[in-house]
């Protein structure tokens, strides 16, 4: 594959760059995932709430790529937290994906006000022990949630997938994850394609390297060591976003991007988010 892996804390290899499908309707997801797989992506990030596990699964099935060469992530939605509900929701996700196992299963949000994530994760440990998820982890967990989880359970999460981009660099969370052996995965790595790709410092670095702003931002993530899952439904951009393994940012570029941090979220605050 074009994409080098990172090694998770249980020895499983995860491609450092994958394809995200949030906000892509089911039929369009099938097309977009097929395009991504043709362009060399091997990791796909979906979720029960995205409503496109079926389309994702169809594209995977018709790709002709061996299952062991693919890395499929899905996520448990909020209303399905709790031990028994989690087991049922996982069965439904596998069924929609048409798979025997997923590579990574994540708790989508911690919902600290509901206080169910420990029980939920105990069901994840059962799924993991049964070999139906090759790795398990979390999404949108703050260090305090991870601390409580690790204290109460026995499998350290392999991954925590969090909002992370040059305007929200998450230094404290990344350091905490590194101390615990948890891989950091960046969601909305391109800042959802909003103002970030027009920031003058990023445009200047793009011109210097003869690359696009999206490629510069993805390269910044890769050199930080995080896993990235950019989303696009546009074939040229799908190709562009994986074409980032033949150049490097230098120390000056990295410093200029590091200076863009504003601790500014595009998505909800995990401490208070309680929907679904
Ligand atoms: P993103 O940062 O990947 O940005 C995607 C948008 O950027 C596209 O819709 C398009 O408008 C633009 N774009 C993409 N490639 C471009 C290019 N080459 N040039 C110019 N513009 C380009 O945003 P995202 O979809 O929010 O995040 C990526 C993935 O992360 C999602 O699809 C999903 O899989 C995951 N995610 C997870 C959570 C979570 O709570 N765990 C939340 C949001 C997203």
From TrEMBL:
- Name the PROSITE patterns on file: ALDOKETO_REDUCTASE_3
The UniProt transmembrane annotation reads: none
- Write out the coiled-coil annotation as residue ranges: none
Which residues make up the binding site for substrate? Answer: 108
* Active site positions, chain numbering: 50
UniProt entry tagged with the keyword NADP: yes
Q: Which Pfam families match?
A: Aldo_ket_red
Q: Where is this site: Lowers pKa of active site Tyr?
A: 75
GO MF, one term, reads: oxidoreductase activity, acting on the CH-OH group of donors, NAD or NADP as acceptor
Entry keywords, A to Z? NADP, Oxidoreductase
Q: Which residues form the NADP-dependent oxidoreductase domain?
A: 17-262
Q: Is the Cell membrane keyword given for this protein?
A: no
Family membership? Belongs to the aldo/keto reductase family.
Tell me the protein's name: Aldo/keto reductase
Protein source organism: Streptomyces fagopyri
């Amino acid at each position: 594959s074009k994409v080098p892996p990172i090694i998770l804390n249980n020895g499983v290899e995860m491609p450092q760059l994958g394809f995200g499908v949030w906000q892509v309707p089911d039929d369009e997801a099938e097309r977009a995932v097929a395009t991504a797989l043709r362009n060399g992506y091997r990791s796909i990030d979906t979720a029960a709430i995205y409503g496109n596990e079926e389309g994702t699964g169809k594209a995977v099935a018709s790709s002709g790529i061996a299952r062991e060469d693919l890395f499929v992530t899905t996520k448990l939605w909020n209303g399905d937290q709790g031990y028994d509900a989690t087991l049922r929701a996982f069965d439904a996700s596998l069924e929609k994906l048409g798979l025997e196992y997923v590579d990574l299963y994540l708790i989508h949000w911690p919902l600290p006000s509901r206080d169910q994530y420990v029980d939920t994760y105990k069901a994840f440990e059962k799924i993991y022990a049964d070999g139906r998820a090759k790795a398990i982890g979390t999404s949108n967990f703050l260090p305090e949630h991870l601390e409580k989880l690790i204290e109460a359970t026995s499998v350290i999460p392999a991954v925590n997938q969090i909002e992370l981009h040059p305007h929200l660099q998450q230094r404290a969370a990344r350091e905490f994850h590194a101390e615990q052996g948890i891989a950091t995965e960046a969601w909305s790595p391109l800042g959802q394609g909003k103002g970030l790709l027009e920031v003058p410092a990023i445009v200047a670095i793009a011109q210097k390297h003869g690359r696009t702003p999206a490629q510069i931002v993805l390269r910044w993530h890769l050199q930080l060591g995080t896993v990235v899952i950019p989303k696009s439904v546009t074939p040229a951009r799908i190709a562009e976003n994986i074409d980032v393994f033949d150049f490097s940012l230098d120390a000056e570029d990295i410093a200029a991007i590091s200076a863009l941090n504003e601790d500014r979220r595009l998505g909800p605050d995990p401490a208070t988010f309680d929907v679904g």
